[in-house]
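Here's what a typical entry looks like (TadE-like protein):
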Amino acid sequence: MASLEYLGMLPFLLLIALAGVQLGLVAYCAEQAGTAARTAARTAALPPPHGGKQAGQDAGAGAVSNWLTATITWQNAPLDAYTAKAEVRVPSVIPGIRLFGPVSRTATMPREDTP
């Protein structure tokens, strides 16, 4: 009888475990988006020839794990700073079911070539 009760609870326990893994993925993607935004803004703020928006986009996209993709966009900032917004799409634990949208983070870094 106890084994039948365990079999009845097993789907709920698996669902709770999958929810925990999914929330962990959301937190990890948010951390990766922050890393990408900081890297992009920091690289863009470097003086030429190593800096600039294109170099920042490349560096920000390369700063995330290989199985994630970061999209870097630039936001309005003061003339002496760069503000990068990184957006990372959260993968789903259950294929075909999207529970969370992409997470995004922004970072602003002062330009290093200004007096």
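The chain has a mean pLDDT of 90.

More examples are in the samples folder.
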